[in-house]
Every structure is written in structure tokens, then in C-alpha cells.
Amino acid sequence: MKYNVAQIRKSKNIEDHYYEINGTLGSEALNSVYTVNDGLSPDYNYYLYFKVNSFDSSRKLVIELINSTTNENYIVKVVSFTENEYQIVFQPFIEYDKIVISTADEDLMIDIANIHLYIVNNALSSKNIKSATVLGIQADPSFLVAIDGEGIRIGESGFYKVPEGIYVHYIGAIPTSGSFLIDYKYRE
Fold first, then answer.
1. 115 and 130 in one domain?
2. Which one of 75, 103, 121, 149 has the fewest beta carbons within 10 angstroms of its own beta carbon?
3. What is the pLDDT of residues 130-185, one digit of tens each?
4. How far is CA 21 from CA 36, 63, 78, 93, in A?
5. Does 22 share its domain with 109?
6. What is residue 168's DSSP assignment?
7. Based on the domain organization, do 50 and 96 belong to the same domain?
């Protein structure tokens, strides 16, 4: 079986990597609700960035996807309140139209200062590649990359590797700063 090797590098045009989609921030009860204008599709990986104005470090934050038509929900992440800035990568399993941000205790209003939602472009599909294996990433520490719906943050070494035998179908870089290089093998 023949394998090819390819690379993904940081582009000068940020929209080659990800682009913002529109929505409206509101509230329901004590929750902050971000309604996505065109909905969330299971075909994409998303990057959610937001800041919280005030928080209590003993609380946990819950990020949940809601389908308003069917009332189905999916909890994306439960994270500790350790800072006021959050970056989350996710891939929905069905179509959703709302992102709800709340506390696990449900008795504290979340004051969102700034929220942005992006579609992370799949570098593989833009090259007509179905899957990759032996994926290696070299980037600045704390660089964020989307791999099959999971947000992977590069550690202090500046390297991350997906070993041979694990096939990746979605690779997207979120270059908020610094540079990166992603090497991978793929089959024709």
C-alpha cells in the first residue's frame, strides 16, 4: 500500500484555517444562550471562544448544545472556573441551533463579555484526502488544533503525534498566534 506525505502550514489568510459564523447572544433563566443563525452541522468542527466577566472559582461551567425543534441536548464540556477566557473545540453529532453556557449549580448567572464561534476548516478535505495517519504537529506550546472534533492543545515540548494505525478524518488548525507545521501520511 502506497502512502504519500503532506504538510499544512500557517497561511497568511486566517480564513484558510477558520472563519466566524454569526449568532446572537441572549439569556434564558440564569443561562447565557448563543443562538447560531445557520445552526451547527455534524459535518464540521467548531471553535468556541468566550470570556466571562465574573466568576466564582469553586463553580463548574457547563457548555451544552440544544436542538430547539426536537429539544435534544448534548453536553460538550464541563470545565472548572479557573480563568475568564475559554477556548473549546467540538463536533456536534446532530444539528443544533443553540449553545447554552451555565453553571453546574444552576444558581449563578453567567455574564458573557465576548463570544465568537468559528468553523474550523478541514485541511484534509480541501486537498481531497479522506484520512491521514502518522500525524505530527510542531507548534508553539498551547497551540490549539482540532482533530476529529477534539481540541488538542500542544504541550511545552511543542510537539504532538498521532501514532500510525490511528486514522484521522478532520484536521484543522486554530492559529490565534505563533506558527505551526503539521506533517501527515495519507493513502491515495
1. no
2. 75
3. 999 889 999 998 889 999 999 999 999 999 999 888 999 999 988 777 789 999 99
4. 8, 18, 23, 19
5. yes
6. B
7. yes
Which residue, 102, 29, 30, is CA-closest to 65?
A: 102
Span 25-56, pLDDT tens digits: 988 777 889 999 999 999 999 999 988 876 66
Pairing of strands 180-187, 132-139: antiparallel
pTM of the model: 0.87
Q: How far apart are CA 147 and CA 149, in angstroms?
A: 6
| Residues 92 and 150 both lie in one domain | no
Angle at 175 between CA 119 and CA 165, to 5 degrees: 80
Task: Give the contacts of 166 (CB within 8 A, at least 6 positions apart).
Answer: 133
- What residue has cell string 480564513? 15
Rounded Cα–Cα distance for residues 39 and 88 (Å): 17
Grid cell locating 172: 484543522
| Same-domain check for residues 39 and 104 | yes
The verdict on 37 and 98 lying in the same domain is yes
